[in-house]
Amino acid sequence: MNIKLYFMLICLFCLNLQASFYEYQNTLNAQNILTAFDIDTSYQVDTALFTQHYERTIGKEWEHFVESYDKGYEYIPILKQMLSDAEVPQEFLYLAMAESRFSTKAYSTKQASGIWQIIPSTARSLGLKIDDFIDERRDPIKSTEAAIKYLKFLKESTGKWYLAAMAYNCGIGRLQKAIKEAGSDDINILMDGEKQYIPLETRNYIRLILSMNVAFSNIDTLKTQDKEYFLNRGTTTTLASVKVRGGTSLESISKGAGMKFDDLKSYNRQFRYGFLPPSDTEFDVYLPYEHLLTFKKNFKPQKVDLSKFIIVYKVKKGDSLYSIAKKYNISIASLKNANNIKKSLLSINQKLVIPLKHTNTKLANNTLAKKIKK
Hints:
Layout: H1 3-25, H2 27-36, H3 47-58, H4 61-71, H5 76-85, H6 93-100, H7 120-125, H8 140-158, H9 161-170, H10 172-182, H11 187-190, H12 200-215, H13 219-223, E1 239-245, H14 250-257, H15 261-267, E2 282-288, H16 292-298, E3 309-314, H17 321-327, H18 332-339, E4 351-355, H19 368-373
Antiparallel strand pairs: 1-2, 3-4
Helix pairs in contact: 1-2, 3-4, 3-12, 5-8, 6-12, 8-9, 9-10, 9-12, 14-15, 14-16
């Protein structure tokens, strides 16, 4: 085939692809999203972007994204507002979707946790607290503050928002190596599937973030699922924060707020157990705004009795709820209640607090209270 003719056909194909992508998803929205990430609109000819976008908005995967967006309604308004206040593009909301589907309890094999999937070392460097009683990576507000801080650092280091998103996924060192190998930081070059400058996971990650931004900002797409109300999500904050003294039982907080214990716990997965970390300081506890007035009127704090617990027990290979309960002469029900466990399956290195019977005085030598004083 004549080289000139071949080139013309390729150009025509790209123009058709551009039209297909933007006619289907609203040209202006898509261009604004690319611009928000500092991406040149020429990236619209990325065939993999179009293919993945089409599959995710037409195929079965779309239903999972819609479900995730629906379940994240408590956090989405807060995340959007915090990003906006920090002058980070609100389009980074979908980085959280790509990372965790907006789940505060999300956990990865790389030990990343929370909505923003932050690993322990990064979390601590950003000022988040992780210990036997609390993991602030699962705190929806504090983890978002940390993620914003990290994203702004990555933007300052790389110069462009799409590079910050790439670095968030594969690491700043890995990205810098890719840019050096490619001789460019242009997204069209870095996303080359044949050269593989950056990992496939990161390439798909960027395309997912862009795709979901376009899909969830387009009324025609949302109409197919009767989800037009998604377009207004982010206009009203749904969660309130209250200050509660350390050592207070979550049960007393839930009673004061007129909520089920499990519902309160779902908003506060940063607390590992059924009580706030034993401390003289105050902690932020989150609850829906509609429960705030009830909480203020009815809350009566109840402290946990630390003498009823022994030091945190780390699950070993072969352990079960039955074997641990038998070892400490307690019921499985009391063990579950103390640790807010619903299922019977345990994981190795999982930490449990052991409620003591009043007769177990010999075990009281190693109490939580003693651990706290160290």
